[in-house]
Specification:
about 90 residues; alpha+beta; Ubiquitin-like (UB roll); 5-stranded mixed β-sheet; two-stranded antiparallel ribbon; 2 helices; 7 strands; globular
Amino acid sequence: MEPEFSVRLARSGRVIPVYTHQSVLEALQECGVPMASSCQQGVCGTCITKVLEGEPEHWDMFLTPQEQAANDCFLPCCSRSNSALLVLDL
């Protein structure tokens, strides 16, 4: 099965595939990347993560429209990617 998109962890260079059946948060946690989370629905903002490259597809209710338009952070618990690769500040 091909991943829908991938995330690269900027600090280690590690690339993690994200499949259609999982959130970015789930993909990271399954690969042993520790991530704080709470609601897992894009409401609380606990898992907010800085995006260094790529275009997130925002599905959260936490960020303002202006913050979403900046595309410099996203909530991996619910948001996806419009690009093939997101580079995260992790």
